[in-house]
Write a structure and sequence with these properties.
The protein has a single domain, classed as 3-Layer(aba) Sandwich (Rossmann fold), CATH 3.40.50.720. The protein has helices at about 20-30, 45-55, 70-80, and strands at about 10-15, 35-40, 60, 85-90. Strand 2 (about 35-40), helix 2 (about 45-55) and strand 3 form a beta-alpha-beta unit. It is an alpha/beta fold. A four-stranded parallel beta sheet has the order 3-2-1-4, with helices on both faces. The longest helix has 15 residues, at about 70-80. It is globular, with a radius of gyration of 15 Å.
Length: about 110
């Protein structure tokens, strides 16, 4: 069965790398467009919490997107809080070295 989005609920976006730079700008733009944003950050808690405090529709979660267990936790927490995920913006980078063709697809 195909589920439809509840028009009374704002759409939900998960955006990684939100504590600064492009990720922060993307998160703010999504809020301006009417989304609730789950912002994922790795290490800059102070900036992430500042962003959350400035925008009531941004909720931050500390996670390392290079770790599968952390990614699953972000998804689970988002579903638990909002019952849906409408958009994912994978802005955060991870450190990988070598030819991309040699990477495990799980990465």
């Amino acid at each position: 069965m195909i589920e439809t989005h509840n028009p009374k609920q704002k759409p939900i976006a998960i955006i990684t790398g939100v504590s600064r730079g492009i990720g922060k700008a993307i998160a703010i733009k999504f809020v301006e467009l009417g989304y609730k944003v789950v912002g994922v950050y790795k290490s800059n808690e102070k900036l992430a919490k500042l962003l959350e405090n400035q925008h009531s529709d941004i909720f931050t979660i500390k996670a390392n997107v290079g770790e599968e267990k952390d990614v699953k936790e972000v998804i689970n927490e988002t579903i638990k809080k909002f019952n849906t995920i409408d958009v994912v913006v994978n802005n955060a980078g991870i450190d990988l070295f070598g030819e991309i063709e040699t990477y495990d697809t799980k990465v």
